[in-house]
Amino acid sequence: MKKNKISKIIALSTMIFCSASANAGAVLDGIAESGELRACFDAGYMPFEMKSKNNSYIGFDVDLGKMMAKQMGVKYVPVNTAWDGIIPALITGKCDVIMAGMTVTAKRNLKVNFADPYIVVGQSIIINPKLKGEITSYKDLNDPQYTVAGKLGTTGEVVIKRMLKKAKYNAFETETDAALEVINGKADAMVYDMPFISIYAAQNSDKVESILEPFTYEPLGWAVKQGDHDMLNFLNNFLRQIKGDGTYDRIYDKWFKSDAWLKQVK
């Protein structure tokens, strides 16, 4: 009786192992077979992914994705997706990887696996010019007299709700809409990722003030389906390679140390 039970357990374990082995590398195999690397993002997050004047997609993530596809020998296919649906899009197979300036968080990690961080950012602030000198830190905004704008479903929203509990919070679908609230005087400040705040403040220096020094630590990572260890291994090795051969630095400098690309954006 015990022998039969042990035999069944061994057989079941073998089936599970074989099934797992059959699924291993499925995404990489699919990319090779289709000849396409489909990358999800939400266009509008400067300078990571944006729509250009000729309706193509440009940005830091886009260039990294194109380089990745080139090294794989396949075509890069951008999949523009609303932020609140980007993880479901990955899970349901609408894209192979999320390359969208996504912050690595414990909550998101319950649904996806993250490769090693490819850049570290944090939350910064733009403020209405009338508050210059009055607001010098995020702590000053934690007051019922102030209205803070942010983007739905982002780590900026999480930070506002956790660290600025006393302030009134207005949420928006896009970061641009949230920033416009400050320009239009309907919000006193906006909290969002430092790269966007830096660029937006430079573009609108006559309309907003900024506190650029990030007050949070946020590593950004590419996301894949849970359990896809082969894809994770590929992404981590790709990142190490481009950081080692100078490719990463060249792409980084193009988008973060120069504003020449601004004329391409709508």
Automatic annotation (TrEMBL):
Keywords: Signal. It is found in: Cell envelope. This is Transporter substrate-binding domain-containing protein. Belongs to the bacterial solute-binding protein 3 family. It comes from the Bacteria. Residues 1-24 form the signal peptide. PROSITE patterns: SBP_BACTERIAL_3. The keyword Signal applies. PANTHER family: GLUTAMINE-BINDING PERIPLASMIC PROTEIN, MEMBRANE-BOUND LYTIC MUREIN TRANSGLYCOSYLASE F. One of its GO terms (molecular function) is ligand-gated monoatomic ion channel activity. CDD domains: PBP2_Dsm1740. It comes from Moritella marina ATCC 15381. The keyword Cell inner membrane does not apply. Residues 36-258 form the Ionotropic glutamate receptor C-terminal domain. Residues 36-259 form the Solute-binding protein family 3/N-terminal domain. Gene3D superfamilies: Periplasmic binding protein-like II. GO terms for cellular component: cell envelope; membrane. Its main location: other.
